[in-house]
Amino acid sequence: MVASDLPAFRRVLEDGACGRIFPKSNSAALAAALVAHVVEHGMPVGTLINVNAPAGEPEGIEVTRLGKRLYEDELKLVEESESGGRRRYEIYGFEPSFEDEPGTDLAAVARGRVAVTPIHFDLTDHGELETISGWDLEGMLAGSRPAR
């Protein structure tokens, strides 16, 4: 979370195969070093440093961009009322995969490396603000209202 313009960190320890994890002492030491660096050198307002660590001892560390997970979930009808008005579904799936693109956090962790990803939460397409501002949004709103 990024609050009050204070720098924020998120640390994820992958559970990995056979329950191996990146040793918490190493992870805590890395987090402390990152925090000390930000305190000394600063960081852009609104930025969150996301740190993902692989299972086991890491083979290195790299700066990455966010990767894309692929989910193959299925929706299954479990129960339906006699009247047909109420249905209950179950959502289940398999272990998600990911697009194995170099330079992403998911690819780095899959290769046994720690991924450090600077992220922010402004998903606004700033380039389109002016374009959409030129649309007749007031007219669209007026046209969507029920007639009186």
What does the model show?
The chain has a four-stranded mixed β-sheet with strand order 1-2-8-3. By secondary structure, it is of the alpha/beta class. The chain is flat, with a radius of gyration of 23 Å. About 5% of the residues have low confidence. It has a single domain, classed as Survival protein SurE-like phosphatase/nucleotidase (Stationary-phase Survival Protein Sure Homolog, Chain: A, 3-Layer(aba) Sandwich), CATH 3.40.1210.10. The longest helix has 18 residues. A hairpin with a 6-residue loop joins strand 5 and strand 6. Helices cover 25% and strands 26% of the residues.
Biggest sheet record: 4 strands, mixed
Any guess at the CATH architecture? 3-Layer(aba) Sandwich
Number of strands: 8
The total number of structural domains is: 1
Q: If you compute it from the alpha carbons, what radius of gyration comes out, rounded to the nearest whole angstrom?
A: 23 Å
Report the principal-axis shape.
Answer: flat
Beta content comes to: 25-35%
Instruction: Count every helix, treating DSSP H or I runs of 4 or more residues as helices.
Output: 4
Lateral strand order in the biggest sheet: 1-2-8-3
CATH class: Alpha Beta
CATH level-4 homologous superfamily: Survival protein SurE-like phosphatase/nucleotidase
Structural class computed from helices and strand pairing: alpha/beta
Instruction: List segments where confidence is low: pLDDT < 50 over at least 5 consecutive residues.
Output: 16-22
